[in-house]
Amino acid sequence: MTSFVGYPSSYRAPFTALQLLFGQGPSNAPSGPRTAMYMGPKTSAGSATVNTAYPITSEADAITLFGTGSPVHRAIRRHLLASTLGNIVGICYAASSGGSPVAAAATITITFTSGSNPTATGNVRTWVCGEIIDVAFNTADTATTIAANIAAGINAKPWLPCTASPAVGVVTITARVAGASQGDGTVGVIRIRSIPDAGKNVISTTSGAALGLGTGAAGADGSTTEATNLAAALATITNTRYYYMGFTVWAATPLASITTHVNTKSQANPGLRCRAFTAYTGTLTACETIALTVNYERQHVVHQANSEWDTADLVGNAVAIHQSQEAAVGGFVPDLYRGKDWMCPPAYANSDWPTSTNINDAVTDGIIEVASDQFGSFMVMSVNTRSRDSGGTLADFRATETHRISFLDALGDRWMQRDQATYAGFKLMPDQLMPDGSVNFNQKVPPKTLTPSLYKPFAAKQIEEGGDNGEIQNVPGWLASLNITIDPNNVSRNVITASGRTIDIRHQTAIQLSETTPG
């Protein structure tokens, strides 16, 4: 008899549940809108109560609730810039506190090759988290004046995750949220760069490539870590389904909490199947370690080494695209995706553009790699982190393609919803069998009563529709495996099992042309 996790035969309360098993061999909650939920720390300016879900209809909502430039605001802002379709919910928790939390910081220092003024009019172009700030200067300007104008330009973009303050030719840029998640001295999350026009006597020097790198102050958590606050926030939505869950954290401890949360919710009981998205801007090697540690089919990691964007931007744009692309029946995010709703700039340095070998390694290890070329950037392939066997050692790519989870989620959601709508209030009785073991189709069945054989056409219809939608393949094989029984240990339970393959996505085309010359 099939074992349903969370529902032993001794469980008696009514339910309709779905259990999806992925990568099975070589060959419970009602469904609803696939809501996108973003969770992250708020700033002190945010009016939201922590660990509370708020429906979002505009960027203004996110600013008011979570604070301008907060990770939750930035993720939601990026989502809305990409797509205004679909439901969005925001949940915040408090930033790291207690002890001595440190906000990641960096500096831009303005000096001159000689003297104390530019030798001609010109411009200093500064990039902060992918945003361009142009500051003009003339021969009367001092280092202090130029620095003040750069700081004003940064602060004029309130959606940035940092603020700027000038003093005597130095601009100090500080993350709005204290803690390691905004740059811990090893991983640069908020990148900066400042380049003046050449030949104008102006020098612009940064403390590092991102806040917290080089000589900039590294972000650090206090005695109450962000991971602790995240875990507390997750605990408040244990019984709520948000199908797309976006997080701006990237370190091992919070990722482990997210994995546990999503895995627990996605079991047959409680059946709140969902998926989690995070992002990483460090090296591919480090991201591979993260993805292989997670190794879970319902968890995604978006990666762009030394990205111009921070993790909130990457997560918000990726979730928006998945939500909109998967809203259509049989919909999925195409390979090499660079649609108009994908707005991420390419990595600034060509040396950070992944090679074909890097790209293949990333995909094979379950990473949504963001690659760059002369035309911009693109998402190579939508995958999840389930690239290894259950022990995490042997390569096992069967469940890694995102559509293998998304398509079965869609089929299963429809099935459960229709089951409840069609058979609510029905009774259940076994089939009568003929002496040869076959079903007696002349059996008298009372009104509003179901038997396994009477349910089979309904089940077959769901499978056939999945085939028509392009969600599964070899429908005859699925139908041949279809088995419907009553649990002998619980006569109120109708048990349906079926197995087969989801449809495959065309990822590659290999063309070989051979010219032959008569000899």
Q: Could you describe the 3D structure shown?
A:
This protein has three domains: 36-96 and 222-344 and 367-403, 3-Layer(aba) Sandwich (Rossmann fold); 105-206, Immunoglobulin-like, CATH 2.60.40; 427-519, no CATH class. It contains eleven helices and 19 strands. It has helices at residues 59-66, 71-82, 143-155, 226-235, 252-265, 284-294, 311-325, 356-364, 402-423, 452-468, 475-481, and strands at residues 36-41, 53-56, 88-93, 105-112, 122-128, 131-137, 162-167, 170-175, 192-196, 202-206, 244-247, 275-280, 299-303, 368-373, 376-379, 427-428, 449-450, 483-486, 494-497. The strands form five sheets. Strands 2-3-1-11-12-13-14-15 form an eight-stranded mixed beta sheet, sandwiched between helices. The protein has a four-stranded antiparallel beta sheet with strand order 7-8-4-10, covered by helices on one side. Strands 6-5-9 form a three-stranded antiparallel beta sheet, covered by helices on one side. Helix 1 (59-66) runs antiparallel to helix 2 (71-82), helix 2 runs parallel beside helix 7 (311-325) and helix 4 (226-235) packs parallel to helix 5. The longest helix has 22 residues, at 402-423. The termini are far apart.
Question: What structural keywords apply?
Answer:
Rossmann fold, eight-stranded mixed beta sheet, alpha/beta, 11 helices, Immunoglobulin-like
